[in-house]
């Protein structure tokens, strides 16, 4: 093979390995499917022209065009997911899907449509349409990464951003060389080199900076790469052998394909079963931890009260602690009811004074974890009132305040405040803790998502359900190294 062919092979191997890593180890990450798509796009845009050069079949050029058309789409999806702006940028993402999806569709039907084939094989027209769609993305994606880098205070997040920016620049700048050749410019084809560098830099971010929110050893990455190289090398050998002995080539191709398909199916089945078992155990474990956490205090009070009643020397003393036991039993019953409301939230509306509700919540949290951590709680709730379910709102606010205190550094302050804004009432909780990265912010309100090793991931999911039941919204803003702001907004018809 020529030097260019080797570059194509290395690019195909690197990007298929990146796609395999994302698929196998990025479960739960918002980057999983965008990176899988980008890796497969780069793989197809590298391997198809390689096979075309080896066997001289023009049909592989159409496959190359199909995968090339999808590269900007998945690249923009990766960037928007990384900076945590998938929802705000959904219109731009839909525009990418429409434009580049149309180009990919034309390449896919070019085998059966002469009109589509004429369009795809017109190098200048194809490259011009590609550039028209790619240019806005080419400018927007680096700008998003640079803006994210400037706003990040966490060094690991800045390191991830730098590597992704370098990967994007390498793929873009060197990819332009290939596009320019379609316009007749006599310059070296460096697109495969750019795609290889992109995959290598993203893999470095995976290993060094935990791009997929989990630790991956270099040995794992190298093992995946070695497996992919072996598989691709086998296909290249079969392709070359089939030129001299077609029967032998067909036999080898069929044998290797069946073997790889069987191996892939078995690995996929085991991986799927393992992940299903892990998710089921994690669900049970998180529910158990959350329930145990919530019931620990009232149960301790119940046991303590019952013990005192057993040793009471007078009816008056026994009656006093019997009232404590009764109150804590009611509290347990309320907690059980709250868990039932997690899937069936039915608000019972009453008038709530925010300063009184906030004082109860602040007192409960301040006397527990806040005092242990040396965190103070400041309230500025004014005299605003809400027409809402007191129990649900109190539970939601307690969840938010407890999270804020747990995330705060010792000696810092957590602030609760309220204001009339956006046609309703906004309750805000502000902490100065470690904060969350952009991908974690996007997933913060999902069921069972947590950044804590002992967390259940039920707190903010419950908060969101409570707000939706009241016709409101829950929002979260966070900056790594600076802190987090959670806002609970109740609409005007619920607020006073």
Protein described:
The chain is of the alpha+beta class and 496 residues long. It folds into three domains: 3-244, Rhopdopsin 7-helix transmembrane proteins (Up-down Bundle); 282-341, Helix Hairpins (Orthogonal Bundle); 350-491, Heat Shock Protein 90. 70% of the residues lie in helices and 9% in strands. The chain contains 15 helices and seven strands. It has helices spanning 3-25, 32-55, 59-82, 90-109, 114-121, 123-151, 155-182, 191-209, 218-244, 246-310, 315-341, 354-373, 390-407, 438-443, 459-469, and strands at 350-353, 376-380, 385-388, 413-421, 424-431, 473-479, 483-491. It has a five-stranded mixed beta sheet with strand order 2-4-5-7-6. The chain has a two-stranded antiparallel sheet with strand order 1-3. Strand 6 and strand 7 form a beta hairpin. Helix 4 packs antiparallel against helix 6 (123-151). The protein starts with a helix and ends in a 5-residue tail after the last strand. The relative contact order is 0.08. The model is unreliable at 247-252 (pLDDT under 50).
List its salient traits.
496 residues, Rhopdopsin 7-helix transmembrane proteins, Heat Shock Protein 90, 70% helix, alpha+beta, two-stranded antiparallel ribbon, Helix Hairpins, 5-stranded mixed β-sheet
